[in-house]
Amino acid sequence: MDFLIHVTFSLLSWTAERGVLNVSDMTPVLTNELTQTLGVDDFLAYPEKCSLSSSPYKCTNVSSSNLPNITDIDNVACHLYPSCTGVACCVYVDWLRHSFHSYIEFDTCLYILTVGIEDLKQSMDLLTYAWEYAFC
Q: DSSP for 85-109?
């Protein structure tokens, strides 16, 4: 399944065309239409894969067995994997009424870097990756 980025999309124009003045005016029908317009509906996970109010994104007891959250932004919470080879974040998007699970992992044995958002995942073999260098 391919993902096409809609670089010409304007949330301001889209909401104005539908008479939506703020996020509280978004109905489930409009939310569904927006995810389809953005082309992300096929990649959204239901039920949601994360929640800002539950573990591991809501840290209730920091001890030596779990690492603290990386949190400084509203509606975003991140945590390091216990192996320290990845970071997972939960991002709540008001307009889509959905929490997105995003992550980056590095497999230190196979040298594979994996980046994912919800059910969209891309892995790169770093041993065969064509590195490009740019020097100023």
A: SEEEEEEEEGGGTEEEEEEEEEETT
Per DSSP, the chain holds a count of helices (H) and strands (E) of: 2, 6
In Å, what is the CA distance from 88 to each residue of 10, 93, 102?
Answer: 28, 16, 6
Six token digits for residue 64: 């030596």
Instruction: Report residue 105 as tokens.
Output: 């992992």
Which two three-digit tokens encode residue 94?
Answer: 């008001």
What is this structure's pTM?
0.70
Q: Taken in order 72, 12, 94, 99, is the CA torsion positive or negative?
A: negative
Q: How far apart are CA 71 and CA 5, in angstroms?
A: 27
Question: In which residue are the tokens 């891309």 written?
Answer: 122
User: Token pair of 66, please?
Assistant: 């779990």
Q: How far apart are CA 110 and CA 27, in angstroms?
A: 45
Largest CA distance in the chain: 53
Beta-bridge partners for 117: 102, 120
pLDDT, mean of each 10-residue run, the chain (136 residues): 66 93 92 88 82 71 47 77 87 89 93 91 89 62
